[in-house]
Amino acid sequence: MKTDTIPLNERIIVALDVAGDRQAREVVKKCEGHCRYFKVGLQLFMANWFHTVDWIVDRGHKVMLDLKFFDIPETVKLAVEQVNSRGVSMATIHGNDPIIRAAVEAATSMKLLAVTVLTSFGEDDMREMGMTQSVEDLVYYRARRALDLGCDGVVSSGLEAGRLRRGLGGKLLIVTPGIRPGANVEDGDDQKRVVTAGRAIGDGADYVVVGRPITQAADPAAVIASMQEEIAARSE
Ligand code: C5P
């Protein structure tokens, strides 16, 4: 099991899936007394490149840059080099071997996370694509490869966190999106493999990524506090 402890105010990474810098700053300001880790993904990055990333880092918070790089290895290497020195704490790449190798070689200042299987992808999607293995087996296989190739961690759903932690040990960082209070998938939700924040951390995840349950809440601080309570109870 993991020996290092992550402060409670860094366990929840708030996904800033918003249209631009103004909206992102509003979310950060509502959350920052309670948590200090924020995820910048494709939508916000497309809007203003590193502008919000720099602002968050200058404010003393941490950034997970979730651009899920997927291209020929040389292009991924050059892209990762662009992120070095921006103060980003973690960045995501897609988990196939040549891409991981190139990214690991290029990353000097951030932890690299390989995306295993998106949390919006379920067993039904596997069958539709003619794949016979389970999502869990595919996640496990990709995570083991990522670790062997020198990646710091993986992004997986909370449903796989326990098996990854037991099978792959304490060195691997596990970051888990698809977090829903009560583990309920509401009508229209695009996420399929969901768990609660408490279960994800209790089963061995290091961090949970939470977007809409916090950013669309009437009282984001209350949602954060309730998730942190669950996490504290499960991570002792
Ligand atoms: O709003 P919600 O909590 O579903 O947001 C989850 C965030 O995590 C989104 O920004 C999404 O891009 C990201 N993510 C994910 N599944 C992955 C990797 C990242 O949902 N496997």
Question: Helices and strands in order, then pairings?
Answer:
Elements: H1 8-11, E1 12-15, H2 21-31, E2 37-41, H3 42-48, H4 51-58, E3 62-69, H5 73-83, E4 90-94, H6 97-106, E5 111-115, H7 123-128, H8 135-148, E6 153-155, H9 158-168, E7 173-176, H10 197-202, E8 207-210, H11 212-215, H12 220-234
Parallel strand pairs: 1-2, 1-8, 2-3, 3-4, 4-5, 5-6, 6-7, 7-8
Helix pairs in contact: 5-6, 8-9
The structure holds cytidine-5'-monophosphate.
Feature tags:
236 residues; eight-stranded parallel β-barrel; alpha/beta; binds cytidine-5'-monophosphate; TIM Barrel; 8 strands
What does this structure look like?
The structure is a single chain. With 236 residues, this protein is α/β, with parallel strands linked by helices. The protein has a domain at 69-206 and 213-235: TIM Barrel (Alpha-Beta Barrel). The chain has twelve helices and eight strands. The chain has helices at residues 8-11, 21-31, 42-48, 51-58, 73-83, 97-106, 123-128, 135-148, 158-168, 197-202, 212-215, 220-234, and strands spanning 12-15, 37-41, 62-69, 90-94, 111-115, 153-155, 173-176, 207-210. It has an eight-stranded parallel barrel with strand order 1-2-3-4-5-6-7-8, surrounded by seven helices. Strand 3, helix 5 (73-83) and strand 4 (90-94) form a beta-alpha-beta unit. The longest helix has 15 residues, at 220-234. The chain starts with 7 loop residues before the first helix and ends with a helix. The mean pLDDT is 93. Cytidine-5'-monophosphate binds next to strand 8 and helix 11.
